[in-house]
Design goal:
With 131 residues, the protein is α+β, with helices and mostly antiparallel strands. It contains three helices and five strands. It has one domain. Strands 1, 2, 3, 4 and 5 form a five-stranded antiparallel beta sheet that branches.
Length: 131
């Protein structure tokens, strides 16, 4: 999947910034860290390429702005890697553009795009009734 396809997927799912809360971003953080761990294990097993992403940099509000109702206006998620402390993972820019790991090559963007699309699917699932 490409970055453009991931942005299109977000739109096709009918998602908007206003419907995204900090709790939703917390879940995206969990999915990203899970994908980074999978990539780390694979790279350590095959030794074909060094590990790139280590984890998401935890941020209370993801350097974002939110409406009084709790909807996102903008937010910026960064991550730590093997040789860097803070690089863009996902940027939900104020103008509506979603940026994905601009410093990462196509192979290192795979865990980010995978987690993002899984998150879009999760956001659009019907609410489950509690028993």
């Amino acid at each position: 999947m490409t970055r453009t396809e991931a942005r299109d997927y977000f739109s096709e799912k009918g998602l908007t910034y206003a419907s995204i809360t900090i709790k939703d971003l917390n879940y995206l953080e969990l999915l990203l860290n899970e994908q980074f761990l999978k990539q780390q294990k694979e790279r350590l097993r095959t030794r074909d390429k060094p590990v790139y992403w280590l984890r998401v940099n935890t941020a209370k509000y993801y350097k974002g702005e939110y409406t009084e109702a709790g909807g996102m206006v903008c937010a910026y998620m960064t991550g730590k890697g093997r040789y860097f402390n803070s690089r863009e993972i996902i940027s939900f820019n104020r103008d509506g553009f979603i940026g994905f790991c601009g410093d990462a090559d196509e192979q290192n963007s795979v865990p980010v795009l995978t987690a993002f699309c899984d998150w879009c699917d999760w956001l659009t699932q019907p609410a489950q009734e509690e028993v």
